[in-house]
Prior knowledge:
Elements: E1 9-12, H1 17-27, E2 33-36, H2 52-67, E3 71-80, H3 101-112, E4 119-129, E5 135-146, E6 162-164, H4 176-182, H5 184-197
Parallel strand pairs: 1-2, 1-3
Antiparallel strand pairs: 3-4, 4-5, 5-6
Helix pairs in contact: 4-5
Amino acid sequence: MARKFTESKLVLASHNPGKVAEIAELLAPLGIEVLSAGDLGLDEPIEDGATFIANADIKSRAAAQASGLPALADDSGLAVHALDGDPGIYSARWAGPDKDFTLAMGKVNAALDDSSDRSAHFVCALSLCWPDGHTETFEGHFHGYLVWPPRGDNGFGYDPLFQPEHHKETCGEMDPAQKHQISHRAIAFEKLLAACFIK
Length: 199
């Protein structure tokens, strides 16, 4: 049985404005005051876990300990099947120090070369950690295909490269509200809300 969230404030353990905005929107109906690690000036921990869940745990634990508030962390990325799951947990690192995802998308496409298999999925791991160290974790997957050239200016990260199954638009072309209903983050959040927030 998962621990229920009863507090009025929550720290989002992220310094990524796009991710913070997306997660804050998903949490808005709950009436919880959402603070970001960036707003609180918290340091970014070293993410040296071997999985998405491990890295989400590192971030949520660090934020909960530093703030004294429950903290929610997301670790997400793109797993390309023909690349043995790369860039995977290194998805942000493929964008370099300047977080240039145009560069990252180009790297992914170059690595695929002439591969006929362009299937991929996004992964979102969520870790909710309380200041006493208790954590609850959840994971969502979002399947689709990679297009080239990238299409659309909505979303962030690899969104313009990724066309979800059964859709004609990339995540970069989709209305953000539509993407939020079907994405890896939405799937993981549905699990989190059912376990920890819905009475």
